[in-house]
Amino acid sequence: MDQLRLYVIGDSISIQYGPYLEQYLAGRYAYGRKTAETEALLNLPVPMGDNGGDSSAVLAFLAGLIEWGELAADLLLINCGLHDTKTDPATGRKQVGMDDYRRNLEGIVALARKAEVPLVWVRTTPCDEAVHNTRPGMAFHRFAADCVAYNAVADGVMAEAGVPSIDLHSFTANLGEEVYCDHVHFYEIVREKQAAYIAGWLEYLSISFGSRLTIE
Q1: Residue 207: per-residue pLDDT
Q2: What is the maximum alpha-carbon separation in the chain?
Q3: What is the pTM of this model?
Q4: Which of 73, 154, 165, 190 could serve as 7's disulfide partner, Cβ 3.0–4.6 Å?
Q5: Cα 105 versus chain centre, distance
Q6: 110 — phi, psi (to 5°)?
Q7: Hey, where are the domains in the chain?
């Protein structure tokens, strides 16, 4: 059976569950993701390395991939939101405001349609704001309510576009309170569980690939 080519663009959470996801999908999907080398090839400003960064960075990177003919994928797995919600402690300004976030996600959906590559969205994971916002030297804050609010924006965009969403936010929150190894990242066992959850969803979606992942 031919393998489907999966391409992942996501934040550090996706980097951490990525090796497990690749392992669990072996034989079904050929796994690829955004890398610093690819970003350098596209000559994009403000490089984020393997990290997808905020929605503006994801949009720019995806546009570059398509323009340069570097997007070799049968399926895109994308998430962005944690970087968008970064909040200036002095002004309360977000790194990417909610209206811009919506427009960026609409742009990402449009690019996927242009490339004729089905898109699956991953909802942004929660954060531990009590730890995050009291860390010495932290230049920005994050708030749990913003993760919920930005996810709600993404839910609307993806539902309107008919894009499947994997609810990694609720799954992770339901694992309990002792999941964080710091302010926003997760212990190794949690990363394994996240990968297994996503792999299960992708397995289901691959079975119904012809209908559920069609770009209208």
Answers
A1: 62
A2: 55
A3: 0.91
A4: 73
A5: 11
A6: -65, -40
A7: 4-207
